[in-house]
């Protein structure tokens, strides 16, 4: 049975800049935002929209896994929503049988954006404490904070 965990954060970056970084420039920006974790992101299939498959290659020794393959399952430029489902490696090698993160961005002001994060997950057996949604949401919020910092200082 798929369960959900929701959280949110506010970033001091405009909606359009944030959306472009997360949807169009993601493969280039992710290794710059997390240089000590992500070696690179490769496009395996697709055009960046629904059905696109990406591989995140992690630096050796950082994670218990070397890579994570993700599928873009949602991509809506009008509502600024993108969903990424892990389909191989990563969290699926750590006790989860399903893991998906959905980001929905909403403008608060010209230079402030609300980010709603929904983590959908399932597991067939006991899962490691590190992959519980409360822990993985902390990683997601850490990434968003680093993304904000990168965009404010390099955009």
TrEMBL record:
<dbReference type="InterPro" id="IPR024949">
    <property type="entry name" value="Bet_v_I_allergen"/>
</dbReference>
<dbReference type="InterPro" id="IPR023393">
    <property type="entry name" value="START-like_dom_sf"/>
</dbReference>
<dbReference type="GO" id="GO:0038023">
    <property type="term" value="F:signaling receptor activity"/>
</dbReference>
<dbReference type="GO" id="GO:0010427">
    <property type="term" value="F:abscisic acid binding"/>
</dbReference>
<feature type="domain" description="Bet v I/Major latex protein">
    <location>
        <begin position="6"/>
        <end position="153"/>
    </location>
</feature>
<dbReference type="InterPro" id="IPR000916">
    <property type="entry name" value="Bet_v_I/MLP"/>
</dbReference>
<dbReference type="GO" id="GO:0006952">
    <property type="term" value="P:defense response"/>
</dbReference>
<protein>
    <recommendedName>
        <fullName>Bet v I/Major latex protein domain-containing protein</fullName>
    </recommendedName>
</protein>
<dbReference type="GO" id="GO:0004864">
    <property type="term" value="F:protein phosphatase inhibitor activity"/>
</dbReference>
<dbReference type="GO" id="GO:0005634">
    <property type="term" value="C:nucleus"/>
</dbReference>
<dbReference type="GO" id="GO:0005737">
    <property type="term" value="C:cytoplasm"/>
</dbReference>
<comment type="similarity">
    <text>Belongs to the BetVI family.</text>
</comment>
<dbReference type="Pfam" id="PF00407">
    <property type="entry name" value="Bet_v_1"/>
</dbReference>
<dbReference type="GO" id="GO:0009738">
    <property type="term" value="P:abscisic acid-activated signaling pathway"/>
</dbReference>
<dbReference type="InterPro" id="IPR050279">
    <property type="entry name" value="Plant_def-hormone_signal"/>
</dbReference>
């Amino acid at each position: 049975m798929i369960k959900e965990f929701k959280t949110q954060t506010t970033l001091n970056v405009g909606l359009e800049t944030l959306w472009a970084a997360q949807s169009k420039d993601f493969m280039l920006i992710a290794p710059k935002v997390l240089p000590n974790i992500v070696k690179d992101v490769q496009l395996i299939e697709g055009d960046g929209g629904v059905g696109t498959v990406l591989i995140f290659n992690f630096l050796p020794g950082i994670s218990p896994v070397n890579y994570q393959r993700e599928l873009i399952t949602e991509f809506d430029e009008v509502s600024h929503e993108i969903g990424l489902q892990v389909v191989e490696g990563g969290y699926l090698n750590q006790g989860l049988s399903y893991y998906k993160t959905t980001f929905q961005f909403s403008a608060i002001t010209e230079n402030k954006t609300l980010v709603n994060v929904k983590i959908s997950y399932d597991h067939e057996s006991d899962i490691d404490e590190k992959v519980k949604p409360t822990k993985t949401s902390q990683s997601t919020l850490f990434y968003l904070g680093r993304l904000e910092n990168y965009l404010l200082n390099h955009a």
